[in-house]
Amino acid sequence: MLSLRNLVKVYPGPVTALRGVDLDIPKGMFGLLGPNGAGKSTLMKILSGLLEPTSGEVMLDGLDLVRHPEALRPHLGYLPQEFGFYPYLSGQDMLRYLLELKGVTAPQGLKALCAQLLERVNLTFAAKRKVKEYSGGMRQRLGIAQALAGDPKLLIVDEPTAGLDPEERQRFYRLLAEVAHERTVLLSTHIVEDVAMLCPRFAVIRHGRVMAITSPTEAKAALHDTLFEGTVPPADMAAFQQAHRVTQAVLFEGRNRVRIHAAQGTPVPPGFERTQPTLEDAYLLLMKDAPEPKAPTAPTAPASAPAVGA
Prior knowledge:
Layout: E1 2-11, E2 15-25, E3 28-33, H1 40-47, E4 55-60, E5 63-64, E6 76-79, H2 91-102, H3 110-120, H4 136-148, E7 154-158, H5 166-179, E8 184-189, H6 192-198, E9 201-206, E10 209-214, H7 216-221, E11 227-232, H8 237-243, E12 245-252, E13 255-261, E14 273-274, H9 279-289
Parallel strand pairs: 3-8, 3-9, 6-7, 7-8
Antiparallel strand pairs: 1-2, 1-4, 4-5, 9-10, 11-13, 11-14, 12-13
Helix pairs in contact: 2-3, 2-4, 3-4, 4-5
């Protein structure tokens, strides 16, 4: 179990990136969903030991990682948002170099371990190919291979599918789902589909605060019978947005195809029909409801995060 208590990070300025984050993250896949600038990368860096929090507590199976960050290293696998590879090394040589830097050892030697890891992430066929020839998805799988070395208890992946094409994204989803059976995997992303496909539970974060802790099923169920869809002429769109809670608007055949949230008893515009809510609807409504942060001063501990649908 990974437990975070009242985690705060204030940068010089002051700029408050985290405003008292409380989370309990069990074994398996857990998502951290939020827009760019929400505080996700700051949180990932603190959990990976690259950054010290201003205050708060991080515990992994009883280990105090703030007071003893060195205790984390044998138990951590980390794939950052931007992973630097040497483009002219082969995949197997790049992986071996990374394992040597991490101090990983293996009874049968690093060559055999690299072969096992490359097979696990389906890169054996490209082991001798230069990394510069790898696709974006192949590079991400190589990054996961190094993160899995040493059989870590905690695997942190930061924005892993950004820039991947749909086929590579699906392949990467399957790989992450497979490795999550054996450890805690924390997935940080701004892509709603990542959470919908992978995470039984997730937290929504914005302005350095946890807005909700829920599941894809619970988040959608909380909007049952409250989502409606219809079309709005472009000229009327600005006034329509002022009068209704619009979750999404997509231009279709010259008209805006619009989804709105209307609570029970709220009048629905003519021509709008009830539709099934999506996780994206739930997420966008949470973003609309997120309070703007106060002046950047050292924060106080927030109330416990609400669960969507509670």
